[in-house]
């Protein structure tokens, strides 16, 4: 089974654009769960341009499915936030300050000692860990040596190449998931997954424990409505 975790960053972007509380992030998270989402993902950034740190504390109080917090552990408040909130999962992402969106995975070889320390800290607090990586075998092998529970495969390159050459686009991900599985790592995936490319990705990448999807899903919800959209995405994963 592949779980669908809905990333609600874009709901917070819309809310923040007018300074009030419309749409209500907490209500949207609860509705995503009611409509079938198996998890909620947020990726707070230091500029709080979408998810605010306070949102993360507020969400934790109400979320009944799996709460996944993504972010860079080198940012000032990130580790403190995650350790206080204790989500089901933390996904470590090596984004630079001010980056528009995530655009690469960790170099798990160069950062291995740092990652070992962080993973130990989060796992000791009972939080499942995931490391955001490109589908490169050496990076996955080094990730396994950090003690992490999972990796999250960064899927933007797949999504970009998918329309012209789906088989070539998915090949590195298929190999990466296979190797991760051999090493005892569970596999998540995310970034630019969509209604168009998700079923093909799922059919080729095994095992796949969770996908986190935000941008395309929220765009689709403008046309199909949130409930229908979540059901459409879940159908791609069944
Ligand atoms: C790690 C990842 O791929 C997503 O969390 C993505 O970076 C979402 O962040 P933004 O919504 O800020 O683009
Ligand atoms: N981890 C990926 C994620 O949470 C959502 O990425 P996107 O669907 O907004 O590109």
UniProtKB/TrEMBL annotation:
Pathway: Cofactor biosynthesis; pyridoxine 5'-phosphate biosynthesis; pyridoxine 5'-phosphate from D-erythrose 4-phosphate: step 5/5. It catalyses: 3-amino-2-oxopropyl phosphate + 1-deoxy-D-xylulose 5-phosphate = pyridoxine 5'-phosphate + phosphate + 2 H2O + H(+). Keywords: Cytoplasm, Pyridoxine biosynthesis, Transferase. GO terms for molecular function: pyridoxine 5'-phosphate synthase activity. Its EC number is 2.6.99.2. One of its GO terms (cellular component) is cytosol. InterPro entries: Aldolase_TIM, PyrdxlP_synth_PdxJ, Pyridoxine-5'_phos_synth. This is Pyridoxine 5'-phosphate synthase.
